């Protein structure tokens, strides 16, 4: 009896231990980045778990007039914001079309959409670079937004299409019986119910576009057009040839913290969007 009674407690203890190990493993790099950001530049060689004394010199250096990091943050906001809005608009209509309408080659179209997300981004850099050079898109926002859309849209379409399929068709039928057209039923009935899924898709898309690096690095040469991720990778020290470790860590904290805060604030809605439609 004692053994059987202790078995659930033992399994629970092992489960909690496993969760703790995973949490520590995931948060350790971010914690070390935070500690390094608050160390003085001359103390970056230390391996202590707490910065002593704490300093904000690295954060001051990030926003120094010669760095131009404010403009890089603005560029990231523009690229990620436009990518998210465009993905939601196009992805919602495309997903609803695949989920509700019947037309020829519907399965082929769905397969092509999914297949496009399987291409590694690096394989598209050279042809896109050649194309954008010929049409004069180098050093522009659209040169970073369009490639991001090509990877964000398939995920959005697939996620939202699955969400729309779980909605009863009787919702639209009842709305059309009451005199609404299919478009009006979609706008007034389906879209409000699809808000959790759309919100989740928007958060995932924004984070992916915010963290995008390879296209932003390849398509932009002017310093004023670089996004935050590219700007961080190209930080140089006072001499112009060394790597300012502390400054990069401080910039990494600045770029990461807003995303963490957004996820923590909206975690309930994100989880609701991911699980919505799973149970009718």
Question: How does the SSE layout of this entry go?
Answer:
Elements: H1 2-37, H2 57-62, H3 69-100, H4 106-116, H5 122-135, H6 142-165, H7 170-177, H8 182-193, H9 195-211, H10 214-219, H11 228-233, H12 245-265, H13 267-275
- Overall form: globular
- Helical residues, percent: over 70%
Topology order in helix (H) and strand (E) letters? HHHHHHHHHHHHH
Distance between the termini: 42 Å
Overall number of strands: 0
What is the CATH superfamily of the largest domain? MetI-like
CATH class of the largest domain: Mainly Alpha
Runs in which pLDDT lies below 50 for 5 or more consecutive residues are none
Average pLDDT works out at 84
- Helix count, DSSP H or I runs of 4 or more residues: 13
Our Rg estimate from Cα atoms comes to: 24 Å
What count of structural domains?
2
Name the structural class.
Answer: mainly alpha
Strand content: under 5%
CATH architecture call of the largest domain: Orthogonal Bundle
Q: Let me know the largest β-sheet.
A: none
């Amino acid at each position: 009896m004692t053994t059987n009674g202790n078995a659930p407690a033992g399994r629970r203890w092992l489960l909690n231990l496993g969760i703790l190990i995973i949490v520590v493993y995931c948060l350790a790099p971010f914690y070390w980045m935070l500690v390094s950001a608050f160390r003085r530049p001359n103390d970056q060689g230390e391996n202590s778990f707490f910065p002593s004394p704490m300093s904000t010199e690295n954060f001051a250096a990030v926003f120094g007039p010669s760095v131009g990091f404010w403009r890089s943050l603005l560029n990231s906001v523009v690229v990620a914001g436009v990518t998210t809005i465009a993905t939601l608009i196009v992805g919602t209509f495309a997903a609803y079309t695949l989920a509700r309408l019947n037309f020829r080659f519907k399965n082929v179209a769905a397969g092509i959409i999914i297949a496009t997300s399987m291409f590694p981004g690096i394989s598209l850099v050279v042809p896109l670079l050649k194309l954008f050079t010929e049409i004069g898109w180098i050093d522009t926002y659209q040169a970073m937004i369009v490639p991001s859309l090509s990877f964000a849209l398939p995920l959005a379409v697939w996620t939202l299409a699955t969400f729309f399929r779980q909605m009863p068709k009787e919702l639209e039928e009842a709305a059309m019986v009451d005199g609404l057209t299919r478009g009006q039923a979609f706008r007034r009935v389906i879209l409000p119910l699809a808000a959790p899924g759309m919100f989740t898709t928007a958060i995932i898309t924004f984070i992916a576009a915010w963290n995008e690096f390879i296209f932003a690095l390849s398509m932009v040469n002017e310093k004023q057009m670089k996004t935050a991720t590219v700007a961080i990778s190209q930080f140089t020290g006072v001499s112009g040839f060394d790597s300012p470790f502390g400054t990069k860590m401080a910039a990494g904290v600045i770029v990461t913290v807003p995303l963490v805060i957004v996820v923590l604030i909206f975690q309930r809605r994100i989880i609701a969007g991911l699980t919505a439609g799973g149970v009718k």
